[in-house]
Amino acid sequence: MKVFTPTVAIPMVVFMAIVFAAPAQSQEDQYLEPATELAEQINESAQQSQDKIDNIAGQIDSKLQQYKTLLKEMEGLEVYNGQLRKQIQNQQDEMQSLNDAIDEVSVIERQITPLMINMIDGLEQFVALDIPFLEQERKDRIVDLQAMMDRADVAPSEKFRRVMEAFQVEMDYGRTIEAYSGLLTVDGQERDVEFLRIGRTALLYQTRDASRQGVYNKQTRQWEELDSSYRTQVTKGLRIAKKQLAPDLLMVPVSITD
C-alpha cells in the first residue's frame, strides 16, 4: 500500500486555486466595466448639470444687477417726475396769473387810451403856447403820435412809451442849450440865421454874418431886434451850444412873464 505525502497535495491545491481564480477575476471585470462607464456617465452628466447651474446662476446674477439698475433708474425718474410735476404746476399757476393779467390789461387799455389822447392834446397845446423853437420838428412829433393812436398794429404799451418819450423830450428842452440853423423873416426878408435856445428862458437869433441879432419876446410873442452890444454874447452862446467853447456866463435879455 502506497502512502501520499502532504508535500505533493499542496502545490496542486494552489494551482487549482490559480486556475479557478482567473475566470472569477474576468467575470468581476465584466461587472465592473459597466459600473465604471455608468459612473463616468453620471459624473459627466453631473458636470453638465453643474455647468447649467453655473450658467443659470450667472444669468440670475446678471438679471439681478439689471433689476437693481432699473430700480435706481426708477428712483431717479420718480424724483425727476416729481420735479416736473412741480414745474408744470408752477407753469399752470403762471398761465393763470397771465390770463388774469390779460383781463386786467384789457380793463387798463380801455382806461389808458383816453388818458393818452388827453396827454397828446395837452402836449399840442403846450407846444403852441411855448416859445417857437424847432417848430416843425415838434409839430411833426405830435402829428405822428396822433396817427399812431389810430393804428391797430401798435401795442398799447408801445403807444404809451412813445407818448412818455415825447413828454421826456419836451422836459429836456427846459434844461439844455442848443444851436440850430433855420429861416426867419427879418425886415420883410427871409434870412438864413442861427438860433440859440437857452432852456426855455431865452430864444435868440443871429444872421450868418453876425450883423443882426434878436430875441423872442414871450409877452408880445414877437421877435425883437437887439443892438450890436449883444453881438459878442450871442456869438459866444452859439459857440458854447456847439461845444466850441467851454460853458461860461452869458449876458442876454430875458423876458419876464406873469
How would you briefly describe this protein structure?
With 258 residues, this protein is of the alpha+beta class. The chain has helices at residues 6-129, 135-149, 156-173, 231-241, and strands spanning 177-186, 189-198, 202-207, 213-217, 222-226. It contains four helices and five strands.
The rounded Rg comes to 59 Å
Which bin fits the share of residues in helices?
55-70%
Record field, number of beta strands: 5
Mean pLDDT: 84
* Count of individual helical segments: 4
State which percent range the strand residues make up.
5-15%
Quaternary organization = single chain
Low-pLDDT residue spans: 1-21
**Helices and strands: which structural class?**
alpha+beta
The major β-sheet equals: 5 strands, antiparallel
Give the N-to-C terminal Cα separation. 193 Å
Strand order of the largest sheet: 1-2-3-4-5
Based on Cα principal axes, name the global outline. rod-shaped
Instruction: Please write the string of helix (H) and strand (E) elements.
Output: HHHEEEEEH
Protein model, in words:
The protein is of the alpha+beta class. Among the domains are: 64 residues; 66 residues, no CATH class. It has four helices and five strands. Strands 1-2-3-4-5 form a five-stranded antiparallel beta sheet, with helices on one face. Strand 4 and strand 5 form a beta hairpin. Helix 1 packs across helix 3. The chain starts with 5 loop residues before the first helix and ends in a 17-residue tail after the last helix. The N terminus is likely disordered.
